[in-house]
Design goal:
The protein is α+β, with helices and mostly antiparallel strands. The protein has one domain: FAD/NAD(P)-binding domain, CATH 3.50.50.60. Helix content is 31%, strand content 24%. The protein contains ten helices and 20 strands. The strands form five sheets. Strands 3, 5, 6, 7, 14, 15, 16, 17 and 18 form a nine-stranded mixed β-sheet that branches. Strands 2-8-4 form a three-stranded antiparallel β-sheet. Strands 10-11-12 form a three-stranded antiparallel β-sheet. β16 and β17 form a beta hairpin. α1 packs parallel to α10. The longest helix has 27 residues.
Length: 401
């Protein structure tokens, strides 16, 4: 999403673009995620609640947040930085940086639609966060208020009893004892939307070269050269939007902020009655989204190598976590079991902007928010690339910080 959106907005200003995709369009983290466009929830991942997870919890493969026992030194350094940033003060500073992006996030999707991208975003009617008890709900209520206090005034929500939540969504069981309804949110079908975005880039004259992994990026007096293994290609400027794999291409250009794979899992299941909008189970870290004729169930945060194989225990943990709350959902008839690598930074802020080279830029590290913030990232970064000036709202996301 991030790379294609940046390409599209560069085209909008008259640039010629080529997109290099090592696999196929939407094969990475943009394929199997929940597809939420939720500015009211988009916030830095390092937060004080993270520190309440005990060591025993994060070492369990059934925990919502999982770190494998044999973590390497690089991962341990990343986790130490993540923990240092999980304080109230740093979260508030990070949230203040997110506010201008969140306020323009849906506007950027509207710009894509107006420009001919043939995919839709759906209004979340309703969008519900669900809990066993009112006490469990207090953390989200405090976070939503903190987001609003950071300057994001459009965060609108209401509290529900379990009975009210079940009246809105009959798919819920009586294990749901409390809820929060968020207003003004949307969602999309990730593979369909990203595929439509690639089709639009191609239709406007851009190249999207699938199966073209980039081995290295180097700057020369004649331009920026990409090593594709069997050949080289030269461009006036390059944007690295390779998610959890970005460090390999950007370290030589002064980017030192670590990017770690925060892997998430998903699958789809049939339902007797499709929910009217997304459902969120914050305590279990599970997201449920209506996509086509099946329900996508997604969740977990697993700090592991991006190329590690799917861990079936994590799928089982998602199933067990959400089963008590859903009726008429066949969680045993799973299709499209998937794991994808969200690119997570140590301070919870994405990397958006110029590197030490005036012709090499980075767009990535959005954590769980690459789908929601991909278009606004592309819109603002295209301005920085073509005008040579970084928009003020991107300064907190400086890749050289």
């Amino acid at each position: 999403m991030v790379g294609l959106a940046t390409a599209w907005f560069l085209q909008e200003s008259g640039a010629e673009v080529t997109v290099y995709e090592q696999d196929v369009v939407a094969a990475g983290a943009s394929w199997g995620n929940a597809g939420w466009l939720t500015p009211s929830l988009t916030a830095p991942l390092p937060e004080p609640a993270v520190l309440r997870y005990g060591l025993r919890a994060v070492l369990s493969p059934r925990s919502p947040v999982y770190v494998p026992p044999r973590a390497d030194a690089r991962l341990l350094r990343f986790l130490a930085r993540f923990a240092r940033n999980s304080t109230p003060g740093r979260w508030r500073r990070g949230m203040t940086a997110y506010v201008p992006l969140n306020e323009r996030a849906l506007e950027a999707f509207d710009a894509l639609a107006a420009g001919g991208v043939e995919a839709v975003t759906h209004r979340a009617s309703p969008f519900l966060a669900l809990y066993r008890t009112e006490r469990e709900r207090s953390g989200l209520l405090a976070e939503l208020q903190a987001i609003r206090d950071s300057g994001q005034s459009e965060v609108v929500f209401g509290q529900l009893t379990g009975e009210q939540a079940r009246a809105l969504e009959p798919v819920l069981t009586d294990r749901v004892g409390a809820g929060v309804q968020l207003y003004g949110q949307r969602y999309l079908h990730p593979p369909e939307f990203v595929g439509a975005l690639a089709a639009s880039v191609r239709a406007r004259g851009g190249e999207v070269l699938e199966g073209s992994g980039v081995r290295s990026v180097r700057e020369t007096p004649q331009g920026v050269v990409l090593d594709l293994g069997d050949r080289e290609r030269r461009h006036d400027a390059v944007i690295v939007a390779t998610g959890a794999w970005s460090e390999r291409l950007t370290r030589r250009f002064g980017v030192r902020e670590p990017v770690q794979a925060g892997r998430g899992y998903s699958f789809s299941v049939p339902v007797e009655r499709m929910p009217g909008g997304p459902l969120y189970f914050p305590q279990q870290r599970v997201a449920v989204t209506p996509l086509g004729d099946r329900l996508r169930v997604a969740g977990m945060m697993e700090f592991r190598r991006p190329d590690a194989p799917l861990d079936a225990r994590r799928i089982d943990a998602v199933v067990d976590a959400v089963r008590p709350f859903l009726a008429g959902v066949d969680l045993d008839d799973r299709q499209d079991e998937w794991v994808g690598s969200r690119p997570v930074t140590g301070d919870g802020l994405p990397l958006i902007g110029r590197t030490s080279s005036e012709r090499v830029f980075v767009a990535g590290g959005h954590g769980m928010w690459g789908i929601a913030l991909g278009p606004v990232t592309g819109m603002l970064l295209a301005e920085a690339v073509l005008k040579g000036e970084t928009p003020e709202v991107l300064r907190p996301f400086d890749p050289l910080r």
